[in-house]
Amino acid sequence: MIDIKFLRENPDIVKENIKKKFQDQKLPLVDEVIELDKERREVQAEADAIRAEKNQISKQIGALMAQGKKEEAEEVKKKVAESAARLKELEEKEPVIEEKVKTIMMRIPNIIDESVPIGKDDSENVEVERFGEPVVPDFEIPYHTEIIEKLAGIDLDSARDVAGNGFYYLIGDVARLHSAVLAYARDFMIDKGFTYVIPPFMIRSDVVTGVMSFDEMESMMYKIEGEDLYLIGTSEHSMIGRFINKMVDEDQLPLTFTSYSPCFRKEKGAHGIEERGIYRIHQFEKQEMIVICKPEDSMDWYNKMWSYTVELFRSMDIPVRTLECCSGDLADLKVKSVDVEAWSPRQKKYFEVGSCSNLGDAQARRLKIRVKGEDGEKYLAHTLNNTVVAPPRMLIAFLENNLNEDGSVNIPEVLRPYMGGTEKICPKTK
Predict the structure, then answer these.
(1) pLDDT tens by residue, 63-90
(2) Averaged pLDDT for residues 59-65
(3) 11-20 and 27-66 helices cross at what angle (nearest 10)?
């Protein structure tokens, strides 16, 4: 959410930003909110004037009564009654207009960074850099569920009976590998100086609307029936929510966290064959990184954060690339975002395994996360988040890039301490 003062003073910049995001249907919102904001300020000014006048008249009544001028005092009291009725009317109107302004402001997208490429959707995202040499082995690589089934590591049918489509049981060596990746990612980030956190897995609605756009909320979040609670889609939600209405001393910044959580997502819509199995699911686990920092430091942290994910994947011998998200592919709160994509030897292309985002002060403005500077000045923090690793998709990349022709899977050296020293997991079925 952008600053209403900025919008009021720079409507053309806000409209141009909306056009860059190919959301022309939102252009009328700018003029609408400007008019509402004008009305809100007029109502507030009139209410303040009445309050000031009321205080003055009250003193006048006291003086008249002290002088024994009761009739004059009664006449003045009538004026007070009239102004009180008008004040009540204004005080009832004020929050209604305020809510309308807030609702519209939450639909207007954040101002994107000038470096963001302009494009309509993810098909126009721009490759930035590749890390590691993509390799296609001289044997055929099966679909990931076939690889895992030969390792006796998955049960989709039972999960479907128990919970429906989009769920799975991971079993044996594959389940252990899944946990090993998360444990390694946790320690990897702790070694980078991040503080490990396990957050709440449910959040209230005021936190939901503080951390994400309405469109994201509708397409992603599961609501707990009869409760003001939602299951988190990523631990970023509850991690940023931890600082709602908080004042942070500047000398505490940057705040750097790595958090573990299960994640729950609706994943609406039909999906093709490449998104079956464990690619697009309703429940998965993830290691995340979150930074809260001074505005002038946020771009430096943005570049550090995605580079950590690249480093993690390369330590497991998985080739990756970074893809700059174009304007039309950015969620409304994001200033800038980059996807990390892993190489799929089977598909002979890259696919998304993580995303790093700089949200500027948008979340901080919604949640009222403020910083108190050394000089006493108060300002909004900047917030960033990035996927360290999400094992379901990461497992696909891991298995394909470490698969041998006989169906066995090599365990990279960095993961062996988390796998009891195992160097290779072997097929259990033919």
Answers:
(1) 666 667 666 666 666 666 767 788 888 9
(2) 64
(3) 150
Bridge partners (DSSP) listed for residue 387: 288
Beta strands in 198-348 (DSSP E): 202-203, 222-223, 230-231, 247-249, 255-264, 283-293, 320-324, 336-344
Please give the structure tokens belonging to residue 186. 């946790």
Please tell me the distance from the alpha carbon of residue 53 to that of residue 59, in angstroms, as a whole number: 10
Per-chain mean pLDDT for the chain: 91
294 with 254: CB under 8 angstroms?
A: yes
Token representation of residue 99: 């809510």
Q: Which residue has the tokens 């590998």?
A: 177
Q: Which whole number is the average pLDDT over 297-304?
A: 97
Q: What is the mean pLDDT of residues 216-239?
A: 90
Per-residue tokens: 379: 């300002």
Can you tell me the distance from the alpha carbon of 101 to that of 10, in angstroms, rounded to the nearest whole number? 17
What pLDDT sits at residue 52?
A: 82
Under a CB-based contact definition with an 8 Å cutoff, are residues 144 and 399 in contact?
yes
What number of residues does the chain have?
A: 430
Q: pLDDT band at residue 270, thresholds of 50, 70 and 90?
A: very low
Which amino acid, residue 181?
A: V
Residue 302: enclosing H or E segment and its boundaries? Answer: helix 298-315
pLDDT band of residue 273 (cuts 50, 70, 90) is very low
Beta strands (DSSP E) in 84-173 are 126-131, 154-155, 169-170
Kindly tell me the sign of the dihedral angle through the C-alpha atoms of 73, 76, 78, 82.
Answer: negative
What is the DSSP annotation of 166-219? T--EE-HHHHHHHHHHHHHHHHHHHHTTPEEE---SEE-HHHHHHHS-HHHHHH
Q: Burial level of 416, CB count in 10 A (0-12/13-18/19+)?
A: middle
* Cα–Cα dist 84/91, whole Å: 10
Per-residue pLDDT, averaged over 55-60, amounts to 68
Residue with tokens 């126009």: 124
